[in-house]
Amino acid sequence: MKISVIGAGYVGLTSAACLAEIGHTVRCADNDERKLDVLRGGQLPFFEPHLEDLVTRNGKAGRLRFETTENAVADAEAIFICVGTPPLDNGEADLSAVANVARTIAQRATGYCLVIEKSTVPVQTSQQLKRQLQLYSNKGLRCDLVSNPEFLREGSAIEDFFHPDRIVIGVEREEVAARMREIYRPVLEQTFQCPVHAECTAHKTPAWIVTDPSSAELIKHASNSFLAMKISFINMVADLCEAVGADVTKVALGMGMDPRIGPAFLNPGIGFGGFCFPKDVQAFVRIAAKAGCDFSLLKEVENINKRRIERFVEKVRKELWVIRGRKIAVWGLSFKPNTDDVRFAPAIELLRLLVREGAEVSAYDPQANDKAKAVFPNARYCADPYEAAQDAEALLLATEWEEFRRIDWQRLRDAMDRPLILDGRNTLDANELTGHGFNYVGVGRPAVAAKTNVPAADSAIEPTNAVKGLAETR
Ligand SMILES: NC(=O)c1ccc[n+]([C@@H]2O[C@H](COP(=O)([O-])OP(=O)(O)OC[C@H]3O[C@@H](n4cnc5c(N)ncnc54)[C@H](O)[C@@H]3O)[C@@H](O)[C@H]2O)c1
């Protein structure tokens, strides 16, 4: 099928490359000329595992081209709208990019096409889109609107396209669902050469959910808000665990064994971020308020999340006593591992608070240094994790990249001024670290003092209650 994808960001470029990989002829458009130049030059504007291979291979095969929106929408059989829907100051989704694309489609598209809303939008946006398309159409556009929300996760976006749990289609007519099925047939029937796994054993038929457009739009916002709620819930429990000396990792393990709860998204830490959860929760609250429904439950989800970084910095203060003038290292800057996306990343907020308190911050991320530096230039960005930790009095882990689990701890111990690690993602092995002489502070579980070779504690520093407790029992 002749498909156009509008928006060459994390969702658009991934979708375009994957749709080309399953055999469609795809034109991918963006209104950012620089982004188009980068893509035409054979490079990617962001990091996503496996994506470069797909873009290169399908570009060479002539199945994937980069164009302006005006050119891309002419004579397309299906147009996926994948532009950004960032939050406005009042929390509502800014739909101006979606509206601009709709206008271009109305004015430039010819014949019949599917207009597929993949951007995350408030419920009833498809009705607005339909009105816009009719209003601005001057070439007798005939189209059907489809809501097809995207569930990919940055960092595993390609895998998620080929092995989704479900594909959700919101349509007004059954025949439209059949056309959408044609687009996704290779994924639904799992008849593709998997670009992620050499010998793919993950073949599992995804659920094909056909519903009305409003329900499809709601599925996306409700899913993201529910996941955010799970994260804030376990973070709230983590705070209680810290207060009473319990271990949230064990609590989460016990909870997650219940199939009605499940283990996913029960990892406490410094909170959720990224381009989806924070803005989608806010937008969902606003949508509900407009419809006269009280979603104060989700406002609290947001409030709990907003307090995570301040609470983490409070722990740093407790360990160091004074933050001003102290050298502090931060590992991990992207909002999650395996992406370079720093939009609404908790790590960036952490840098901001530490620098505001007068710390000298050295930071390192395997992929996101440049993007972090662009939004927050007031830290020192380092080429590797050891350089960031050199002479530091505390190391803060903000994003759980795999690289941080394979560190030469002895080398790190020698580089640091004081062997103190605050693990904001509960991802490191406390036992291993304390064996290497580090004091370890996680989230929602007792801090653990170094087992060996610890320099005499600074008398001005008040150890955490949990560390104190451990020291007393040893
Ligand atoms: N990033 C994710 O993990 C993810 C997952 C699921 C859904 N979503 C949703 O998908 C949508 C896109 O997210 P993203 O992360 O890909 O955003 P993004 O910012 O990475 O990409 C959006 C792209 O659209 C382009 N654009 C903006 N206005 C345009 C216009 N008028 N014409 C052509 N191009 C235009 C931008 O230049 C940009 O390249 C959002 O609604 C988001 O909520 C994102």
What's the helix count? Answer: 18
Enumerate the strands of the largest sheet in spatial order, edge to edge or round the barrel. 3-2-1-4-5-6
- Low-confidence segments, given as residue ranges, are 456-474
Rg estimate, integer Å:
24 Å
How large a portion of the residues is in β-strands, by DSSP E?
5-15%
Secondary-structure-derived class: alpha/beta
Give the end-to-end Cα distance, rounded to a whole number of Å.
69 Å
- What is the molecular shape? globular
Mean pLDDT across every amino acid position: 93
Helix content: 40-55%
Major pleated sheet: 6 strands, parallel
What is bound: which ligands?
nicotinamide-adenine-dinucleotide
Compute the number of strand runs: 14
Describe the structure using short key phrases.
474 residues, alpha/beta, six-stranded parallel beta sheet, 14 strands, 13% strand, disordered C terminus, binds nicotinamide-adenine-dinucleotide
Can you walk me through this structure?
With 474 residues, this protein is an alpha/beta fold. 43% of the residues lie in helices and 13% in strands. The protein contains 18 helices and 14 strands. The protein has a six-stranded parallel sheet, with helices on both faces. α1 packs across α3, α5 (96-108) runs parallel beside α6 (125-136) and α9 runs parallel beside α12 (296-320). The longest helix has 32 residues, at 213-244. It is globular. The model is unreliable at 456-474 (pLDDT under 50).
